[in-house]
UniProtKB/TrEMBL annotation:
Name of the protein described by the UniProt record: Nitroreductase domain-containing protein
Annotated organism of origin: Dactylosporangium salmoneum
A Pfam short name: Nitroreductase
Top-level taxon in the UniProt lineage: Bacteria
InterPro entries reported in the protein's UniProt record: Nitroreductase (IPR029479), Nitroreductase-like (IPR000415), Nitroreductase/BluB (IPR050627)
């Protein structure tokens, strides 16, 4: 019988495990997602957090296979795991546990209490601070030690971060150009992109127009939101150079849903580590949304592995963070179904 069935009052007992798992799911609302669709749903039981994809939030034109939806859910999974590890919770993750339910992407099982991880605590602090920063970066190089730490963060997952070198920039620019031309030439894509752009303060999802930045002259163009009719007001100069930006590609061994989830976990590890290192980042998935561009990237990577998502990395040009993209209310994305308390006994006599 459902807990809210008419004529029945139910009380819930939320034990410490469910409380801890709920805290983790709450932190995961901050995770980045494709066009800020936040395509996830959490179900918390007395000892597990179940992460579901929300297929109603898949982008039919931009993401027909659901790859980017799954990558987005992977970032939420990693945010939750960081929070548990930072709180000293022992847990186990089972990815894709049910062949009959492809929307169930992972089960995070509570295993008890352990020592808090200092590395996770550092990343946990980065969760509410991280933003996608599309503005041009400062004309200062990113220290190589910081890049090495990002690569190590990805390596701790089952994916890797392949950094591009200056001799790759031409190929990367070609891939970005191919993606831009193909995507912007498709009126269905432009309409879909436009439908996810929001005026400041409007709604709980989508990309706020004040987080966008002009293309200007960049060695590698980023996704062009202006073609969807969005003006930009973060930076008004067009002489954007971005010349010290670095580019990393999250690469997985395979190209199926399990790999996409892994790519999201790696992406989150890279973004949170970068934030903790005071670097600015913005994900780039347009390169992966067009098969010709993705093939160019695969060739650039020597045909080894599958590029899942790109990341632009740099020194922030200003200490002012970009505006925050909104999030859906927690009650929309987290459902607590922890143990029912014993039903009340009928009065005696
Ligand atoms: C799978 C994925 C793909 C993304 N692709 C792009 C992209 O191509 N261009 C871009 O500017 N931002 C991209 N983003 C960043 C999202 O737009 C951003 O996470 C979202 O708008 C929420 O904003 P926030 O990251 O500042 O919290 C992507 C994020 C994810 C997780």
């Amino acid at each position: 019988m459902p807990a809210n069935a008419p004529g029945r009052t139910t009380t819930f007992r939320i034990g410490p495990a469910a409380q801890e798992l709920t805290r983790a799911a709450l932190a995961a609302v901050h995770a980045p997602s494709i066009l800020n669709t936040q395509p996830w749903h959490w179900r918390i039981t007395h000892d597990a957090a179940l992460l579901y994809a929300d297929p109603r939030r898949r982008l039919p034109i931009l993401d027909p296979t659901g790859r980017l939806l799954t990558v987005s859910c992977g970032t939420a999974l990693h945010h939750a795991c960081v929070t548990l590890a930072a709180d000293g919770t022992d847990f186990e993750v089972e990815p894709m546990p049910d062949d009959g339910d492809p929307d169930l992407l992972a089960v995070v099982r509570y295993r008890g209490v352990t020592g808090p991880s200092a590395r996770a605590q550092r990343l946990r602090h980065a969760i509410p601070v991280r933003r996608s920063d599309r503005r041009p970066f400062a004309a200062r190089p990113v220290p190589q030690e910081a890049i090495d730490r990002l690569c190590r963060a990805a390596q701790r997952t089952d994916a890797r971060l392949q950094m591009t070198w200056s001799h790759d920039l031409a190929d990367l620019a070609v891939a970005a150009g191919q993606a831009n031309d193909a995507l912007l030439g498709d009126p269905r894509y432009r309409a879909e992109l436009a439908s996810w752009i929001r005026r400041p303060g409007e709604g709980h999802d989508g990309v706020p127009v004040d987080t966008l930045a002009p293309q200007g002259v960049r060695p590698v163009p980023i996704r062009d939101f202006t073609a969807a009719g969005a003006g930009t007001n973060v930076v008004t100069r067009v002489d954007v150079s971005d010349r010290e930006a670095r580019y990393g590609i999250v690469v997985t061994d395979g190209d199926g849903p399990h790999d996409w989830l892994t790519a999201g976990v790696a992406l989150s590890a890279v973004l949170l580590t970068a934030t903790a290192e005071h670097l600015a980042t913005s994900p780039m998935s347009d390169l992966m949304e067009n098969e010709v561009a993705r093939r160019t990237l695969r060739r650039m990577l020597g045909g080894v592995g599958y590029p899942a998502i790109g990341v632009r990395i740099g020194m922030p040009a200003t200490t002012m963070a970009p505006p925050r993209a909104p999030r859906r209310p927690a009650a929309e994305v987290i459902e607590v179904v922890a143990d029912e308390a014993d039903p009340p006994q009928p009065p005696e006599g």
